[in-house]
Amino acid sequence: MSLEAIEKVTEMEARMRERKAAAEAEARRMTAEAEREGRALVEKTRTEAAEHGRKLLKEAEERAARQAAGIRSAAEQESVALRETADKKLEEAAAFIVGRVVRH
User: Fold this and answer.
1) CA separation (Å) from 17 to 1, 22, 28, 92, 100?
2) Backbone angle region of 22, left / alpha / beta, with phi > 0 → left and psi within -120 to 50 → alpha
3) Dihedral sign computed on CA atoms, order 24, 26, 27, 31
4) What totals of helices (H) and strands (E) does the chain contain, helices first?
């Protein structure tokens, strides 16, 4: 093999090593970038999920408060109606007793 051919092969091998090193460096850079982007996306998703959870909890608490207010209002109305009925029965009972006592 001639000296010129050996030099060309040597140059070609050197270029190939440089290309391989450059390709490996690019692959490492791309991998690191993809990992960074992946971690950022995971963090963003976690943040959004936490915010969504807080929103759902707030909505549930508001619904529960409205339901509790409705139940409280219904209970108060029922209580008033029962008191009125009891007062009426008491008056009727008193009138009945007075009527019995006066007749005897």
Assistant:
1) 22, 8, 16, 111, 121
2) alpha
3) positive
4) 1, 0
CA–CA distance, 8 with 15 (Å, rounded to integer): 10
pTM listed for this prediction = 0.55
Q: What's CA 65's distance to the chain center, in Å?
A: 19
Q: 17-37 in b/e burial notation, b at 16+ Cβ within 10 A?
A: eeeeeeeeeeeeeeeeeeeee
Distance CA 92, CA 50 (A): 62
Q: What is the pLDDT of residues 35-80, one digit of tens each?
A: 999 999 999 999 999 999 999 999 999 999 999 999 999 999 999 9
What percentage of the chain carries pLDDT values higher than 90?
74
C-beta atoms surrounding 67 within 10 Å: 10
